[in-house]
Design brief:
Strand content: under 5%
Low-confidence stretches: 47-62
Radius of gyration: 18 Å
Number of helices: 3
Largest sheet: none
Number of strands: 0
Mean pLDDT: 77
Shape: globular
């Protein structure tokens, strides 16, 4: 991936938010444009949730019914 391809990928993927993404993940922060793109993709799929997904293996237990 070239620097131009990185910028175009961010713009086509994030549309009106592309400038924010490019500011958060500048090319200068990574050794290669491909690594910058990977950082963007990993950052956009990282979420924090108070409740794990049903497929997450944890030791947490949740009530089977909603509290009233």
């Amino acid at each position: 991936m070239t620097a131009d391809q990185y910028t175009q990928s961010v713009k086509s993927t994030y549309g009106t938010n592309a400038d924010k993404v490019l500011a958060e993940y500048p090319l200068t922060a990574c050794p290669t444009p491909g690594q910058a793109w990977t950082a963007v993709q990993n950052g956009s799929t990282s979420t924090t949730s108070a409740r794990p997904s049903p497929t997450t293996t944890t030791n947490w237990s949740w009530p089977a019914t909603r509290p009233r």
